[in-house]
Predict the 3D structure of the following.
Amino acid sequence: MHRLVKVATIMLAAVLVLASTAGGKANAQSDQKNYIIDATFGKGPDTFNSIFCVEASCATASANIFPGLIGRNPKNLVFEPNIPGGLAKSWKISDDRLTWTITLKNTYKWSDGVPVTSKDILGTWNLIINAATESPNATITEDVESVTAPDDYTVVVKLKRPQCDSAPQSIDGIYGTGGIQPAHILEKIDPAKLKDAEFNLKPDVTSGQYKLNEFRVGELVRYDSDQSYPDKQGAKIEHDGLVVKIVESQAVLIEQFLAGQINVVEEPRVADRDRIKAAAAKDPSIKIFTTTGSLWDHIVLNLGDPKDPQPAFELDKDGKPQLDKPIKQKPHPVFGDVRVRRAFQLGINVQDLIKGAVFGYGKQMTSLLNPSNRYTDPALKPIGYDKAAAEKLLDAAGWVKGADGFRVAKGSQTAPDGTRLSFKLMTIAGNARRGAVAQIIKDELKDIGFDVDVQSIDFNAMIDQQNAQTFDAAIAARGSVTDNSIDWSFLFDPNRDIPGQDGNAGSYINPQLTKDMQEVSAVKGCDEKRTTELWKSIQKTLQDDQPYIFLYTQDYMYAYRGLEGVNPTEYTIGYTDTWKLATAK
C-alpha cells in the first residue's frame, strides 16, 4: 500500500505513499510460511534510514519497519490524530497556528524493548538539521523554528509561519511514515559517519508492522510480521511476513503477476492494464481496484535565460536570498513571452496525449490542482486544442513561419531577429509514457512552427539540469492529494529561485501568486470560504501565465490475486495487516 512519506523525497519520484498504513503487499508462500509476495522494479532500496531517503523505494522500505508521527485517514487522506502507523495520539494548535503540541501514543516499543518516545523524534530532528549528517532532506525543515520534547510523550513543533493544512507539510515532511529513527541507537554513531553506518542497511532495532529479516541487494527484501505492532487492526497480523522481490523492469513485474508469482501490482503500466483486466475476467482470484490518480504529468518551462541562470535575489555569504536586492534576469528567448507559452498549450491536444501516452487512463488537468482535489475550481475549464489561436498568438509575438515551416523571430520581445523557434525538451530515458508524450508534442508543435529537439536522458542528469536552470523544458510529474496538505508554493516562490537548488527551476515570479500562496496556507481563522477563493485565484493565475504546461493525471490501478482481507477505499488500497493469503491455513 502506498503511504505518504517525505514530500521532498517523493516529488522527484512523483509518487506519494500513505502515511496511515503499515507495510507492503505481496504473493504466495515462501519457506513454508505464509508470506505475501510483492515486487518493485529497479535497484531497490539503497538505505532503510529515512534520514537519507531520496526516492520512493527506500521510503517505502523504511515505512515497513519504522513509525511515523502523523497519519492520514485512508478514507479521505486528511491528516488526523490516532491513525495507525502514526505516533500522534492527539494535538493542540495555538490560535496563531504557529505551535503544534502533539501528544504521542505510549504503546510503541523498539524491538529491543526500549519505548518509542519524544526523544526519538527529537533525535531524528537533530540529525536531519545537523550539517555533519549531510541529510538530503535538510531543506524540508526550513519552515520549522524548533522541535522540543518537554516530556517523553509530548512534542512541541514551532513553525516560522502559520499553516492551515490539516497538518503542516513541514511536520509531515520531517516525520512522514517511517520517518522516526531509534535515538538510543543512532546517538552512539558520529553524525559525520552516519551515512555510511551499517545500521542503514541492517537495522536491527525497529518498530513497525515488520522486522527486517534479510536484504539481498538487487534481489529481495524479506520482512517478518511483528505481532507486537500496536496499531494492527485485529488480534493479529494475518500473514507471517512480506517478501519484496526486486526485478529489473515493469514488464517483468507484470509478467510475474500474471503468472501468479507475486500477489500485488500497484500502478501497472497503462500499456499492461487491458491485459490485467482480461486476466481478471478469466481468473476470479484476480481483483482490480481503480481510482482517480493524483500523479500529474506536466512540462516545466524555463522562463529565464538558460545560458545565464540567475537567482531572483542576490545571495548573502550563507547562500540566503537578500529580499531587498532583486536581480533582473534575462528572459528565455522562447518561453520568456507568455504568448508563446500559451501557444504551446493551445498547440497540443491533451486528449491525444491521454490516448497515446496513458491509453485513455487519465484526466486532463486544468491548472495546478488535480481533478479530485476539493479546491479544484469547477468553473475553470481546461485549455483545449486550438491550432488557429496558437498560430495567431505566435504571429503577434513576433515569430513568423519560414519556408521550411518552422518559425523565426521577427520583432520578438525576447529573441533577436532570425532566431529559430526551437527548444530542447528533456524526458527520462526508458520511460515509455514520457517518451510517448515527447513525441506527440514534437509532432503537434511542428504543425504550428516549433522545432522541438527531444532529449532522452538519465533521471538524475535531468534533475541536475533543472536545478541548475540550464534547461529549456522538461517533462515532469508531481503528486498531490485531495486534502489541502501539499504546499506547492516552493515551485513558484522567488526565494526558491536559486540555481543549483530544488524549487523554482523555471524562474517564474508573479507577486500576486506569491501573495496568494503565502495567504492560502495561513488564512485568518482558516476560513474555508477565503481558502477556496484563494485557490481559485491561484489556479487562474497559473493557467493564464502558463509557467507550466499542464497535461493530465494518470488514473491509479491496483490489482491483487489470491488475497483476502483487502479493503480499498476511494484513495488507497487499505491497511495491509488485515491481508492474508486465500490458501493460508
